[in-house]
Amino acid sequence: MERFMGKSIARRDLLKSLTGGLLLAPFLRTRALQAQSMQPKRLILVFTPDSHPREWWPVPAPGQPNFALQGPLLDFVGLEQHMLFVRRVDHSWSFDNHHEAGVAQLFTGQRFFDEATHYANGPSLDQLLLKHTQLRGGTPISDIHLCAADGGGGNKRHVCCYSGPGQPIQREWDPARAYRYVFAGPRTGGSASWRRTLEVNTAELRRIQVHLGSAERERLELHVEALRDLERQIAGAIQSAALGSACNPTAPAEIAANDHDEARVRAWAKLQADIIVNAFACDRTRVAELGFGYSGSAHAGLFGLATATRSWHDIAHLSIDDAARQREVSVAGATISANQAYVQFDRLWASQIAYLARSLSAIPEGDGTMLDNTLIYWGAESGTDHNHRPIDMQYALIGGRNLGFAVGQFLQPAAAVSAHQLHTSVLHAFGYTSVNGFGIEPNCGPLAGLLRA
Question: What's the pTM value of the predicted model, to 2 decimals?
Answer without folding.
Answer: 0.83
